[in-house]
Amino acid sequence: MSMTLIEAAEVLEALLREETAALKARDLRAAAALQPAKTIAVEDFVKARASLDTAGPLDHRVAMLVDGLRDSAAANRAALEDALALQARVVKAIARVATRPEGNGMPGYARPARPGAGAVAFSVRA
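RE: above sequence
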């Protein structure tokens, strides 16, 4: 049993847990900063998995790691889905405000001369 698979799985699981914690804390900057390391960890894990000799006996630690990775990946997926749902709600709220007609909706002078959305400016810091 090569230790590289175990090490690669441990690194990947740690990164998934860290990203999940950042997503749950709504720290999107920290979660995004982990992406390069997570990509490398996934690549390392896939390489180590490809080099695994499945004909020989497997170390019991591999089964434990698979369970841990599965749990971490499921929690990470749930946190990502929550973050995407929150992002969708924010975008919908912005779109709703941005497309609201100017004025109070009453007929007469309060109505815009040209129907449609007014100018909208955004300032976002990531």
